[in-house]
histidine kinase (Vibrio parahaemolyticus), 95 residues
Amino acid sequence: ILGNLIDNAFDATLSVIRDESNVASERRNIEVSVSDYGNEVILEVSDHGCGLPENIEPQTLFKKGISTKSRQNRGVGLHLVNQLATRYHGHVEML
């Protein structure tokens, strides 16, 4: 789960860096946070990447085959994250 989330954050951040290649390089971070609330653990991954296109609803990215990336064979990572979280009685949200 964590690997797929970080991979997506990295791709989003990298696309911003590529778009700003003619601008002075600034530091881009991916932040990972884990909070334990006894019977619940919250894992958060955040980035300062490109964000979602306006025509994409965040929850649709968890459907198999849906992707914002132009590369082939995409659209399974976030689907797997959602499937695994659900299997272990969790859920995934994109904010």
Notes: Residues 84 and 90 are 8 Å apart (CA to CA).
